[in-house]
# Entry
Amino acid sequence: MKKLLFQFDTDTYPAVFDTVVAYDGGADHVIGHGGLTPDNVTALVEGAIFTRAPKDKKNTAIFVGGSDIVAGEALFAAVQRHFFYGFQVSVMLDSNGSNTTAAAAVAKLAASGTLNGKKAVVLAGTGPVGQRAAAMLAREGAKVTLTARKMERAVQACEHIKARFEVDVTPVEAFDNDARANAIEHANIVLATGAAGVELLTAEQWQTNSNIEMIADANATPPLGIGGTDMMDKGIDRHGKIIWGAIGFGALKLALHRACIAQLFTDNKQVLDAEAIFALAKAMASAA
Ligand SMILES: NC(=O)c1ccc[n+]([C@@H]2O[C@H](COP(=O)([O-])OP(=O)(O)OC[C@H]3O[C@@H](n4cnc5c(N)ncnc54)[C@H](OP(=O)(O)O)[C@@H]3O)[C@@H](O)[C@H]2O)c1
# Structure
């Protein structure tokens, strides 16, 4: 029986990246739908849950993606509201690669040092990757601060994280590189999750900071988020700090995304959101 992955995207066009990884993760056929919302997804979910016998339902799965994590979370919840006893399929949420990217970065940091009790700053943490990463760091016991250029954006993101994950993340306004250098003054861990091609700190702003133990940067588009690092850095030592670049942990991100797709087809009850994806990332990072 063919493994069918229905790619439900909140953007107009389903993400090509997610389609490719879905095939590479083991789906036999990927069917993309764009522009989905909680209001127009009902018939699609019913088509997925009613068509195959109970023992065969594990061969149908749903992936929710798109550039907007809030819209993705709403769609992910709406899909599951249509499930009832015996009639469900496995589901995964990864809007903009948020869960897999954040999980890979934080898992690499966790494998490189201690997170529990450390001060962590997620720079430009208001996007899909930053919000998920902040939550994962907090759940590992770090004291997490999240920056945005405007305080109201930082507050909004922290409130969203609190509502979803029941962890406290402190919002900080940091408009420019100097303000972000102040925000990391006492940090032990810095995770940069700014938009592609935006430098958030210059090399001089972190290299002489003796509190910093580990840095990760999700941005792989020059200029990088953290000046003086390399996107290929794989837990290397620079100025006494462990550095993970976007491509450095990107191999785990891709392997993780593929492994999640494969896991969707193991039974019809998988719910792969931040918690399950991060657990898998940690297992994969420590096995690597
Ligand atoms: N390595 C990988 O495998 C991988 C996979 C997926 C994504 N990524 C990368 O991960 C990063 C985060 O992804 P995302 O989708 O969460 O990012 P995003 O939503 O595009 O941007 C994150 C935040 O960056 C801030 N920002 C935008 N322009 C800025 C500027 N000029 N100066 C300072 N801050 C600015 C914004 O925060 P405020 O407006 O609130 O200040 C925004 O919320 C991106 O660089 C993306 O390319 C990497």
